[in-house]
Design goal:
45% helix; Rossmann fold; two-stranded antiparallel ribbon; alpha/beta
Length: 442
């Protein structure tokens, strides 16, 4: 069991400097956590090098980016991208020439989910093929990194890969029922997780979200050994999620979005960082607070715990300094609605008995219950309904504060992380905004 290590003190300024390198191990899509890290690396003067998952053609074959796609991706990143497809996972693999998992599930019906079977031996073979392909791609990428990165440069390699839902239409209706279902549409996550499809997701989540971090650390050994021999550092970071502390009343309390079936893979990710640390490799998983992104849209209700961040920031920086942020948030509410009312409703939800039952760190991750799901979804819709424009949400504004702040915290804490798994809570984000290290973030 991972020990809970909430960051208590702001990190000292890292030793990264102009000419050092941030390697983003995962393609950048949209706006999210990784953007904050990239922004901070560029502010320091670091060079940014990215990677791509590649693209799938209509026949299912994996290919590099076209010149146009590469140009667009590099413009989005603001740095050079190594154009070797490093797609993680195994759902498209065809061991022994047999149809892939995605192909086998092509005609699967959501109503038949309990009886759908995929041979565990086939899953294992497909995973082996996918792992081999991924590692071979990493070897090619490392060869290019050895040329692109000087031996004397400090390097931060940031693992940003997550997910692993197999590419088959059968999953989305089921996941919508798990994460958004009420009444007859409600589906217990434990029931799904115990099914054959749930087992497939478990294996896939572990491979994509966690084991790719192990492969990354192992395959970059030549780069790490060369640069450390030259007196430089090669550090590793990864993005985790394991709940976070939010301000309820006058106390910071750990809580988590439920159900989070990717949680077991996130724990595995933490274990991989701990194993690397025992070998003398500087590696840490940074468990970040919830944010609202394109990829989190499936998890309706995950955004509720963002609202208390307003209170934490105001408490840390003072009313006057926090006022511009509060003013931006007030402007998003319907006429007659107030931030005080919104914060009270969020606090009432997070303090409710059905949610309090889920605030047990030792038994995380938790499966949903019907009462908890219906309460969460109703609260989420009520809070969003207080806004005048559903495309201009307070939780989106606060998400920007979170990913910019966590980017700065990770960039500096990765130099000498306090533990292999570190929680970046609302409290430390608020303290960062009150500190000189956080200048320009609010």
């Amino acid at each position: 069991m991972t020990e809970y290590n909430a960051m208590q003190q702001l990190p000292q300024t890292a030793g990264y400097k102009t000419g050092d390198v941030l390697v983003l191990a995962g393609e950048l899509f949209g706006r999210g956590y990784a953007n904050g890290l990239i922004d901070e690396a560029k502010r320091i003067g670091m060079t940014v090098i990215g990677m791509t998952v590649g693209r799938r053609d209509t026949d299912g074959s994996l290919r590099p980016l076209t010149p146009e796609e590469l140009s667009d991706a590099e413009a989005n990143l603001g740095g050079k991208i190594i154009n070797v497809p490093m797609e993680a996972g195994f759902d498209m693999e065809q061991p022994d020439g047999l149809p892939s998992i995605a192909e086998q599930l092509k005609k699967a019906r959501p109503d038949d989910w309990k009886s759908i079977k995929i041979d565990p031996d086939f899953i294992s073979k497909a995973r082996d093929v996918g792992t081999t392909r991924f590692r071979e791609a990493l070897k090619q990428i490392v060869q290019q990194l050895m040329v692109m990165i000087p031996p004397g440069a400090n390097v931060l390699i940031s693992h940003t890969m997550a997910g692993g839902i197999p590419r088959a239409r059968v999953f989305m209706p089921l996941l919508n029922r798990i994460f958004k279902g009420t009444g007859d549409k409600y589906l217990p996550s434990a029931e799904f997780w115990d099914s054959n499809l749930g087992h497939l997701c478990d294996v896939s989540f572990n491979e994509v979200t966690a084991d790719t971090f192990r492969y990354l650390i192992e395959e970059t050994t030549p780069l790490r050994e060369r640069n450390t021999a030259a007196g430089a550092r090669v550090n590793y970071s990864a993005y985790g999620y394991h709940g976070t502390e939010v301000l309820l009343g006058d106390e910071f309390v750990w809580q988590s979005y439920t159900p989070y079936i990717q949680g077991w893979a996130k724990i595995r990710l933490e274990d991989i960082a701990a194993e690397a640390s025992k070998k003398g490799i500087t590696a840490a998983v940074f468990n970040c607070p919830e944010i609202q992104t394109n990829s989190s849209a499936l998890f309706l209700g995950v955004e509720i715990s963002l609202y208390p961040l307003l209170k934490a920031i105001r408490e840390a920086v003072g009313v006057d300094v926090a006022e511009p942020l509060f003013a931006r948030c007030r402007s998003m509410l319907k006429q007659g609605e107030t931030l005080e009312n919104l914060l009270e409703k969020a606090d009432n939800y997070l303090s409710s008995p059905a949610i309090k039952e889920m605030r047990d760190f030792a038994s995380w991750p938790h499966h949903n219950t019907k009462a908890q799901a219906e309460l969460m979804l109703a609260a989420s819709l009520e809070l969003m309904g207080m806004h005048s424009d559903q495309k201009q949400l307070i939780c989106a504004e606060l998400s920007k504060t979170v990913f910019r702040s966590t980017g700065r915290l990770i960039a500096h804490a990765s130099w000498n992380p306090p533990a292999p798994a570190v929680w970046l809570t609302h409290k430390v984000i608020a303290n960062l905004l009150a500190d000189k290290l956080g200048e320009g973030l609010l």
